Automatic annotation (TrEMBL):
SUPFAM superfamilies: Immunoglobulin (SSF48726). This is Ig-like domain-containing protein. Residues 10-106 form the Immunoglobulin domain. PANTHER family: T CELL RECEPTOR GAMMA CONSTANT 1-RELATED, T-CELL RECEPTOR GAMMA CHAIN. Residues 20-96 form the Immunoglobulin V-set domain. The keyword Membrane applies. GO terms for cellular component: membrane. It comes from the Eukaryota. Keywords: Immunoglobulin domain, Membrane, Receptor, Transmembrane, Transmembrane helix. It is found in: Membrane. InterPro entries: Ig-like_dom_sf, Ig-like_fold, Ig_sub, Ig_V-set, TRG_var/const_region. The keyword Transmembrane applies.
Amino acid sequence: DTQAVPEQSPATWRQPEGGSVVMTYQLRNGDTVHWYKQLPGEPPKRILYVSEMNPVFDDGSDRRKYQVRKRASEPLYTIQINNVNQRDAGTYYCAYWYSYQGITVLDGPR
């Protein structure tokens, strides 16, 4: 399904410092799911990816900051950002890889 559009929610959130935020990401297909954070005027920077239910962090110190879960019964992923502070402000994106007849395609929010 090369035309699948991933759905991410909530679109916008605000949280007082010290709390946690949970975002969900639903897709139809997906072998590997990536999360990115973008600051104003900068390119997106990958935080982590999940392959076969194992999160791989680009920065090992993020292991306590971010938690990822996937529902076993459906392709719904959640990312939780713990102990929110001013440094967590930014725009977060999800993207995923899937293979279709031997072709790998990268898709993300539109």
